[in-house]
Amino acid sequence: MRAFTMAVLTAACTAIGSAAGPAYATADDVNMSFGMAYGASTTSGTIHFTDGYTATVSGAVHAASGARKICVNGSNGDAGTADQCSAWAYAGGPNQPFTMGLRLTTAGGVQRVDIYMSDESGSPVAHEFCTRKGCTRVS
């Protein structure tokens, strides 16, 4: 009888745990393409929004003059990640690839990614933000 009671209790706990689902509520995985230019300097790539807490930004930056780098951060309402930046791309040199992971442990995880292109002095020269629905050029 004791084994039967334990089996029923285990099955009930498993069913309750399965019904609760994941500890976060988000949409499905989404891949969003982005791209922007400042003069002839460009960046483009993909943001992979997961169905969890994260977004991964992958792409490359091309510098037509001076030096350029890409910095990104993620947000969801008032919560935000720290900036992450690529290595510098230099005029006349190869495109600089980058992959940066963003994580927010708030309900819904990363919902918006801001992408900045900076010049050799570190000043932003172009800005775009992307959500699961699309990208918008800011400057």
CATH architecture: Sandwich
Flag low-confidence runs.
Answer: 1-25
Q: Under CATH, the topology is which?
A: Immunoglobulin-like
- CATH class equals Mainly Beta
Gyration radius (Cα, Å) is 21 Å
Q: Main sheet, how many strands, which sense, barrel? A: 7 strands, antiparallel
Total discrete domains: 1
Overall, the morphology is: elongated
Task: Report the end-to-end length measured between terminal Cα atoms.
Answer: 71 Å
Q: What class would the helix/strand composition place it in?
A: mainly beta
- In percent, how helical is the residue content? 10-25%
The proportion of residues in beta strands is: over 45%
Topology, number of strands: 11
Question: Characteristics of this structure?
Answer:
139 residues, mainly beta, Immunoglobulin-like, four-stranded antiparallel beta sheet, 14% helix, disordered N terminus
